[in-house]
TrEMBL record:
Transmembrane segments: none annotated. Gene3D superfamilies: NADH Oxidase (3.40.109.10). Residues 7-56, 66-148 form the Nitroreductase domain. This is Nitroreductase family protein. The keyword Flavoprotein applies. SUPFAM superfamilies: FMN-dependent nitroreductase-like. Keywords: Flavoprotein, FMN, Oxidoreductase. GO terms for molecular function: oxidoreductase activity. It holds the Pfam family Nitroreductase. InterPro entries: Nitroreductase, Nitroreductase-like, Nitroreductase/BluB. It comes from the Bacteria. It comes from Nitratidesulfovibrio vulgaris (strain ATCC 29579 / DSM 644 / CCUG 34227 / NCIMB 8303 / VKM B-1760 / Hildenborough) (Desulfovibrio vulgaris).
Length: 169
């Protein structure tokens, strides 16, 4: 799939089959995520791969918009190691770029995914820290639920000329 097809056809998938995502595919997805740019090339991202059924089933109890994790075969918790930052505060952009690469790789491989937010919601941050035993310097940004799609969403043209300004507002 070419990059423009992946970008324009990527949709948030919330229904999955029971088919597992194999380890080689997970490695390819993580390699794509780690190819993202980062401030000062610090690469502060850290990933927790979650394929344990009991852990996935529990996610909706502390992350209300991640209910689909209970039906998915895989989740990837994207975090930042704040001690790895060269330019403090840029971790959100760095990890968001990694997540976007991850989502596009998922689409390119014919899988489905949805980005569920954690940071800056303090209750979610605390819950993910607790449930995944994250060290103090590691900040969770998002939980990406991944699997083989059990729904088909059509691409949408979201181009909107009214949101574009040239050479100033």
């Amino acid at each position: 799939m070419d990059i423009f097809t992946a970008i324009h056809s990527r949709r948030s998938i919330r229904k999955f089959t029971e088919a597992p995502v194999d380890a080689d595919t997970v490695k390819r997805l993580l390699a794509a995520a780690m190819a993202a740019p980062s401030a000062g090339n610090a690469q502060p991202w850290r990933f927790v791969v979650v394929d344990d059924r009991a852990m996935l089933d529990k996610v909706p109890s502390y992350s209300q918009y991640a209910g689909m994790a209970a039906q998915a075969p895989l989740g990837i918790l994207v975090c930042a190691d704040l001690s790895a930052e060269k330019y403090p505060g840029y971790w959100v952009q760095d990890c968001s770029a990694a997540i976007q690469n991850l989502l596009l790789a998922v689409q390119g491989l014919g899988l489905g995914a949805v980005w569920t937010g954690i940071y800056p919601m303090e209750d979610r941050v605390a819950a993910f820290r607790r449930e995944f035993s994250l060290p103090e310097q590691v900040m969770p940004l998002g939980f990406i639920v991944i699997g083989h799609p059990a729904q088909e969403l059509k691409p949408q043209d979201r181009y909107d000329e009214s949101k574009i300004h040239h050479n100033g507002w």
